[in-house]
Every structure is written in C-alpha cells, then in structure tokens.
Write a structure and sequence with these properties.
This protein is 46% helix and 12% strand. It is α/β, with parallel strands linked by helices and 356 residues long. It folds into two domains: 31-221, P-loop containing nucleotide triphosphate hydrolases (Rossmann fold, 3-Layer(aba) Sandwich); 224-333, Helicase, Ruva Protein, domain 3. Strands 1-3-4-5-2-6-10 form a seven-stranded mixed sheet, with helices on both faces. Helix 9 crosses helix 10, helix 9 (224-235) crosses helix 11 (259-279) and helix 11 (259-279) crosses helix 12 (322-331). The termini are far apart.
Length: 356
C-alpha cells in the first residue's frame, strides 16, 4: 500500500515540457557516455607494463619468433623494407597443444615491441546487454587503429570465433560478423595493426576467420634440446647438484612433455627438499651453523621434527639432486595425448605451417 501511495504521488506531478533542441543534446550526451563506458571497458585490456619476457626466454619456436619479428619489429625499425606490394603480416594465428608457449610468445612480443598491446579474451568482449558485444568489438579495433602501431592479442580465439551454425544464438553470430568486418572489412584501415590469435583447437574456427589469419603457425611440443633449456631455466639460481649430463638425461626421459609439463615437473622436483624437511625425524647441525634433515640412523642427528624445532630460522633445506627429479618424473605425467597430437598435425598439413 505504501508503494502504491508513492507511485500515485509521483504520477500526479506535472510532466515538464522539454525545451526546443534539448532532446538532441541529451541524445548526444548519452551517446558520449556509452562511448566512454565501452572505451573504459576495453582500456582494462591494454597492457601498460611490459611482462618482462624476452625472446631468449622462449626456448625453441624459431619459426614463430621469426614470423612475429617480421610482423612487429622489422616494420617499425626498417620501414624502408616494406612497399605498396610488400606489407607486414596483419593476422597471425598461433595454434597447438595446450602448454606449448603460445601465450608466452605473446608476452615476449609485448615486451620486445614498442606498440600498444591489447590482450583480450572472450569475457572482455561478451556482454549480457543486447547489441553491446559487437560495440565492444568495434571499440577495440577503433582504439587499436587510433593507437598505431598496435597489437591485438586474443587468447582462446575459438571461443569467440567458432564455426557459424544454423541454430546458434543470434547475438553470437553478430559478434563473429562484427569481428570479421573489423578484421578485414570495407573501409577499415588495418595498416600497422597486428591481430594475434591463440587457440588449442584450430579446427573449431570459422573458415572466414581462418582466412583472415594470413600466417598460421603450429606451436608443437618442444624438442629434446628445447626441453633441456627449459629445465635449466626453470631451475634457475636454485642450489642443485645436477650436471650437464643430468639435464640431457631429463630431456631424453621427458619425450612428449609440453613446456608447462616441464615447468610443473621442475616445480615438483624443487619441492622435494622441502618435503624431506617436513618428513624428517632427525636434523643434523652442520659446520655452517644450520640444521639439515638427516637419516634416522645418523648418530650425530638430533631427534626432532620440523615443527618441534625451537630455532626455525636455523633450518635449511638440502640441495636439489637428480633423485629429486626422478621422483618428480614418477609423479608428473605428460598432459598431451597421442590423439590430440594427431588432430593438430592433420590440421597443419591442410591449413597451417610448422613453427617449431
């Protein structure tokens, strides 16, 4: 009843008569607010700080790095190389199994180039409001064109530009159509704008989207030498007893592992000394003045657990050794199956190119 009285009171007030020309000003103001709102949403996708990933940090993938340098670095440093008939790549698709370094390559590109870098996903461009998603796509490319040279990186692009179907949602179809128009439509100037896409399932892309990516590079599983470099980089400055031959053996035993698999295995190996401290029943005071875990049969060891130690700052973990890595090898399996690799290789034979 109180709400009804409030509504009745509001409706009884006279409606103000709009002044001449006021409607147009209000509409223009609303359009400006909408534009600012969309620009603000896309601005969150701009990477203002460099990710600090260098080309040398990316192990292997020589062809992929060369293609990105041709598209990003060379046009800015050597514009005289490019003429009316020779133009840098405008669309590059990085595809391959999960964990092979596609996003890592994009980070290296963002670090090494002096371009405005937009990193977006489908969640940045899809809105619950009718018609706003395609406006976000248009705003993204408008901002990229205004801030040339620029790079638009779209991770998991298959979720945004999958194959068009008869029974698909009308909103989804409009997003794909707007993306196609902006990427290579009539009247759109994409000079000095590179679109970089990454996907694990390239066969799910719409054929029209696939065509707009002039360069399609297969990011395959790392070779033995690349895996060795990955182990060395992932161990970094951590104290260890591994030799060069040990790293060769690890690279040999991890055939079929992706870059993320190698990173996960290395992390598991580096955790082994901490586990030794956690499960130790005895600790030994060494000449350097610190306690290290020791075997239960060691007569010089002090019987106590890690949590019973009264001077925890005096406890140190042992150095990482080959045994820790062999233990990690039994715990960490590869994540890319033979069936997945076969699908990637078949698609590469038909549409892509080798990038390893």
């Amino acid at each position: 009843m109180e709400r009804a009285k409030s509504l009745k009171s509001g409706l009884s007030k006279p409606i103000p008569t709009p002044t001449t020309g006021g409607g147009g000003d209000k509409k223009g103001s609303d359009d400006k607010k909408d534009e600012d709102k969309l620009t603000g949403a896309i601005s969150q996708a701009i990477i203002t700080e460099k990710p600090n990933v260098k080309w040398d940090d990316v192990c292997g993938l020589v062809a992929a790095k060369d293609a990105l340098k041709e598209a990003v670095i060379l046009p800015s440093k050597f514009p005289q190389f490019y003429t009316e008939k020779i133009k840098p790549w405008r669309g590059i698709l990085l595809y391959g199994p999960p964990g092979t370094g596609k996003s890592f390559l994009a980070k290296a590109t963002a670090t090494e180039c002096n371009s405005m870098f937009f990193s977006v996903s489908s969640s940045d461009l899809v809105s619950k409001w009718l018609g706003e998603s395609e406006k976000l796509v248009k705003t993204l490319f408008d901002m990229a064109r205004k801030n040339k040279p620029s790079i638009v990186f779209i991770d998991e692009i298959d979720s945004l530009c999958g194959r068009r179907k008869e029974d698909e949602n009308d909103s989804t179809r409009r997003i794909k159509t707007e993306f196609l128009v902006q990427l290579q439509g009539v009247g759109t100037d994409m000079d000095k704008v590179l679109v970089l896409g990454a996907t694990n399932t390239p066969w799910e892309l719409d054929p029209a989207v696939r065509r707009r990516f002039e360069k399609r590079i297969y990011i395959s599983l790392p070779e033995k030498e690349a895996r060795k470099l990955m182990f060395i980089k992932n161990v970094g400055n951590e104290a260890h007893d591994l030799t060069d031959q040990d790293f060769d053996l690890l690279a040999e035993k991890t055939e079929g592992y992706s870059g993320s698999d190698v990173a996960a295995m290395t992390k598991e190996a580096l955790m082994q000394p901490i586990k030794k401290c956690q499960h130790a029943k005895k600790f030994k005071l060494c000449p350097d003045g610190f306690y290290y875990p020791t075997t239960p049969s060691d007569p010089d060891g002090v019987s106590m657990t890690l949590y019973e130690c009264k001077t925890p700052e005096k406890v140190r973990k042992p150095r990482v050794d080959m045994g820790d890595f062999m233990q990690a090898l039994t715990l960490c399996k590869k994540t890319v199956g033979t069936k997945d690799l076969k699908a990637q290789e078949d698609w590469t034979k038909e549409f892509g190119s080798e990038g390893s």
